[in-house]
Amino acid sequence: MLAYYLSLIVLVPILSFIILVIFGKRWGDKSAYVSIAAVLISLGLSIKALIDVLGGLNTKVLFTWASIGNFHITFGLLLDSLSAMMLVVVALVSALVQIFSIGYMHGDKRYGWFYACLSMFTASMLLLVFAPNYVQMYVAWEGVGVFSYLLIGFWFEKRSASQAAKKAFMVTRVGDLGFAIALILLYINAGTLDMDKLFAMHFVPALAATISILMFFGAIGKSAQFPLHVWLPDAMEGPTPVSALIHAATMVAAGVYLVARSYPLFEKGPVSLEFVAIIGTITAFMAATIALTATDIKKVLAYSTISQLGYMMMGLGVGAFAAGAFHLFTHAFFKALLFLGAGSVIHAVHSQEIFEMGGLWKKMKITSITFIIGGLALAGVPPFAGFWSKDEIILGAYTSGHTAIFWIGILTALFTAFYTFRLIFVVFFGQPRADHHGGHVHESPAVMSIPLLILGFFALTAGLLGSPFVHNAFQGFIAPGHEAEAVNPFVMGLSIAVALIGITAAWLKYGTQVLPSNVISKNNPIYKLVANKYYMDEFYYYVLIIPTHAVARFILEFDQKVIDGIVNGVAKIIAVFGSGMRRLQTGYVQNYALFMLVGLIILIIWSFRFLGIH
Amino acid sequence: MSNPIITTTIFLPLLGALLLQFIPRSKANLIRTFALLVTLIDLGLGISVLTGYKLGLAGMQFVEKASWIPRAGISYHVGLDGISLPLFELTLLLTVVAVLASWSIKNRVREHYSLMLLLAVGMLGTFAALDFVLFYIFWELVLIPMYFIIGIWGGENRNYAAVKFFLYTLAGSVLMLVGILTLYFTSGLGTFDMVKLMQAGYHSQLATFIFITFFLGFAVKVPMWPFHTWLPDAHVQAPTAGSVLLAGVLLKMGTYAFIRIVVQILPTEFTRFAPVIAAFAIISIVYGAYTALAQQDLKKMVAYSSVSHMGYVMLGIAALTPVALNGAVLQMVNHGLITGMLFLMVGYIYERTHTRDIAKLGGLSIKIPILGGMFVFAALASLGLPGLSGFVGELLILLGSYGAFKIFTIFAVLTLALTSFYLIRANQNAMFGMPQSWMGDFKDASGRELISALPLIILIAAIGVYPKPFLHYIDPAVNTVLQIIRGS
To answer: Cα-flanking dihedrals φ and ψ of residue A73, to 5°?
Structure first.
């Protein structure tokens, strides 16, 4: 019974995928209902699973996927507090995104295919969450990757969209090479890829650290950490609901989930956690600075996602395991909210450039209010969701003695509040800047606004589950061993203060225009560096892509001129050698073959004589 | 012996080819239908072999043995084990696919199908033969129909490609013949029986010499770098059905021969030279991937990708661990299905666009969504996407090879990024984007084309989703092979 309902959580969306691949084209707009029904079933069963786990259930259902001699690769469903929590978040966000898409994708000619991909994307993520074994983790991991590839490139007629899809696939694939090597090392050293067996084993710290860091490369790609974050902003080419799904509970969450899931392994080689913390901190800071200069509403949110993922890694890395997982949980809600809100805005004004928007507050009340709730959560203002989790991460850095990381975390929080409210003041307040669409702007239909309200509710309240008011119930649930840190008034006060300073500064500059618009010159070299995303794309282009193509062309040239040249040369020499017997050369392959055979027999007889064999 | 099902399966296409001569040339559709019927019945026989095969047993099954030229120690001896059975079945399936794929051929239809049926006899026989003379005859039998298929129904440069294919692989098989004869004359057993030779083991100073002749002979067929240059020419010029069978089956004859003959009859030599073989394999992997990346011609890209992918198979064979060898055998089947499907799609697309130049294509997923989608599917399978069969084979090969060849395996892993790169690039440039202005309206996949691809899609997904039942066939046979290695 247990195995039955748990497997349905994954199987129902897969079934929906298969049905929609076959019938999606014929059913058109009705396809949405198949996919939404499937994800709602998954959601219902996931909630049941969570309730069971809250009731003390902790289980694993396994079956053999492949076996060779006595080496077995098992697949299965691992149900514990971490996976139960993620199941619900994934299914819930996916359900809301799919409902929202009814309105957003209305009239698209590949509607059925869109929902087929959403179904399978969700199924892959659920399979990943359930993984008790690294092979299943890897399989689902790549499944998420390929369906994000298809979804980012959903409007593949647009060259930029198919470019972005290619980039996302390739960049994450590069990270996955590390993950793949980690799998091989685990198998060679431990003889198994089952997590519980691996976690119970003894590893030399250096080996554990090597494997963990290689595995983390996969997470760097998937969770868009520095230096493999470059795919994520481009992935905004996908339909906005897809961005919401990728950025909130799936895909980018997978990397954080991998680290959280593999935490016992990382702890065996503590250096790896320091590495995670450093990468997370660099990512959080760097992405926040870029977000300060971005002017595309989705790009600002994209960089905010990278930055928040950096925070999660920072938390996991400094040892604040529960805080990292908690931020993954809260972020899922407010980031889905912000993206769907952005989708609602884009749907209304048909632009993504924030300086072409303005004054939407009057025309789109629900979108505005929910977006501001999401913004407050992102900026880390209490009592909104993001505050509690981000504060815990920063606190973790503080108490574990990572002073530099702590201060960078605080500075990043300041930037976060600033860029979030820069966006809000520019988009929702003031006067409309471009009036060519002014008259037509109105609130989105109910299928779009209701998901916003639901997510708004969670963005407001989800953080309270892990707040001191309920004795950090969330952390106790996710990590029963780890005691939550006591409230530190200095850290909490500082974190509230920078959030408010950031918001105020944004208000002064973009709300009232008290500050002059040219505080920072656009010709300032630092501004240029940041606005050009630290030239990372250019770096990869010149250092990686161009040389790879050059090497490929060189090897092809070598192949044609040298290797094949020798082959043809040998053939010619034989032909010249045989020119004395020109009359015999009839040009027919059959004759060549006959001569070869006769020659061969003579050769063999001769060689046996020569070797003294009779 | 009461029910010679293997012999029947091997020679049914020959009977079919003979009967085909009684159908008037003018009735092209009847010829096609009849050929299809023959291959379908043959596939049906193959499925009954598959269901009758006893799982978990080591050794040959369905063995048929009859003396042929007893004085020379030559016998008619066929049988299948877990290594040859999957390839035997793959051949039967791909022959049906090839018959469907060549429906559009208009000239000399009867000759075309006769040759294709003859080709099937050679391919099936190669995988089932357990006597060296028989093996050699089947092996050579494959060459002639393929030569004509490329030479008559091929592209503009078909003569060059066909002659090159013929002479190059003939040179390879001649070397193999030298090896076989040396083996026969020096083993002291006076037999061509492969099973007897495997059991006795071969111990003589000539072992190295024989190894080298076999190595060269089979390396041409696989093909391994640097003996691969016949392949792109042959593939590009061959008609679609020819490419499907060439990539799907003919290349496997090389890797199969390595396992069946070199590993099992010359285990000591193979173990000694395994690092050299692995080195050639890894060069093939990296080199094939780079050359595929540099291609502008879609079909040539797939051809070079085969060099890279077969390198993985060879790496798995050279590693000689149970996991890697299981992976190698499974990957032979996978490569047959996946690359077979890629060539099929490239062929169908070419019939519409009349170009394979990646730069001239684009937007095919809009023009022909089903064919374009199937190409994308096959490309994803080819780059080793988990959930599809290519991943399982690669995973097992890489897991199993690391213990034997650490650095090589790391290189093999890193090359996966290049593999993704050239396939994703092909997807993006040929399938996605806007259709080019020169393109007219193309008809999407016909029912016949769809049906030809469907079994491949189903198998690629089935092996990828749940490989266990497939490995059940392979694992016991692999164990037997490795016992020979351990005993040597």
So the answer is: -105, 120
DSSP B227: S
CA–CA separation, A380 vs A374, rounded Å? Answer: 10
For residue B487, the enclosing domain spans 272-488
Nearest to B172 by CA among B250, B119, B85, B120: B250
pLDDT one-digit tens code per residue, B241-268: 999 999 999 999 999 999 999 999 999 9
B398 touches chain A (CB under 8 A): yes
Q: What is the ipTM of this complex?
A: 0.90
- Check A65 against B468: CB less than 8 A apart: yes
Structural domain total, chain B: 1
Look at residue A585 in the predicted model and tell me its pLDDT.
Answer: 46
Cα separation, B138 vs B121, in Å, equals 7
Element (H, E) at B423: helix B406-426
With beta carbons less than 8 A apart as the criterion, state whether B343 and B244 touch. yes
Residue A359 contacts by C-beta under 8 Å, 6 or more apart in sequence?
A428, A429, A430, A431, A432
User: Whole-angstrom Cα distance, residue A561 to residue A566?
Assistant: 8
Residue of B nearest to A591 (CA): B167
The 8-class DSSP code of residue A151 comes to H
Q: Do A68 and B366 touch (CB under 8 A)?
A: no
Q: Helices A134-152 and A252-261: crossing angle, nearest 10°?
A: 170
Distance from CA of A290 to the nearest CA of B (A): 28
Fill in the amino acid letter for B453.
A
Q: What is the DSSP letter of A303?
A: H
B296 close to A (CB below 8 A): no
How many Cβ atoms from other residues are within 10 Å of residue B276's Cβ?
11
CA closest to B399 among chain A residues: A184
- Rounded Cα–Cα distance for residues B424 and B438 (Å): 24
Q: What is the pLDDT of residues B48-87, one digit of tens each?
A: 999 999 998 888 999 999 988 888 888 999 999 999 999 9
Calpha distance B147→B230 (Å, rounded): 12
Examine residue B434 and state whether it is found in any structural domain, yes or no: yes
Residue A584: per-residue pLDDT: 46
Residue B308 forms part of a structural domain: yes
Looking at the predicted structure, is the pLDDT value of residue A439 above 80? no
Q: Dihedral angle at the C-alpha atoms of B260, B266, B269, B273, nearest 10 degrees?
A: -10
Whether the CB-CB separation of A283 and A316 falls below 8 Å is answered with no
Contact A154, A161 (CB under 8 A): yes
Task: Read off φ and ψ for residue B80, nearest 5 degrees.
Answer: -130, 145
d(CA B488, CA B486): 5
Residue B5 inside a domain? The answer is no
Interface contact A180-B398, CB threshold 8 A: yes
Q: Which two tokens stand for residue B102?
A: 């060549």
Using the predicted structure, report yes or no on whether residue A614 has a pLDDT greater than 50.
Answer: no
Size of chain A, expressed as the number of residues it contains: 614
The answer, yes or no, to whether residue A590 has pLDDT greater than 70, is no
Give the 3-state secondary structure of residue A603: helix
Residues 6+ apart with CB under 8 A from A487: A468
Kindly state whether residue B439 falls inside one of the protein's structural domains: yes
- The share of chain B scoring above pLDDT 90, in percent, equals 69
- Distance of residue A604 Cα from the nearest chain B Cα, in angstroms: 7
CA distance B306 to B174: 24
How far is B195 from B184, CA to CA, in rounded Å?
13
Show the DSSP H helices in A437-488 as ranges.
Answer: 446-461, 473-478
Q: Which of A44-53, A113-122, A259-268, A509-518 has the lowest mean pLDDT?
A: A509-518
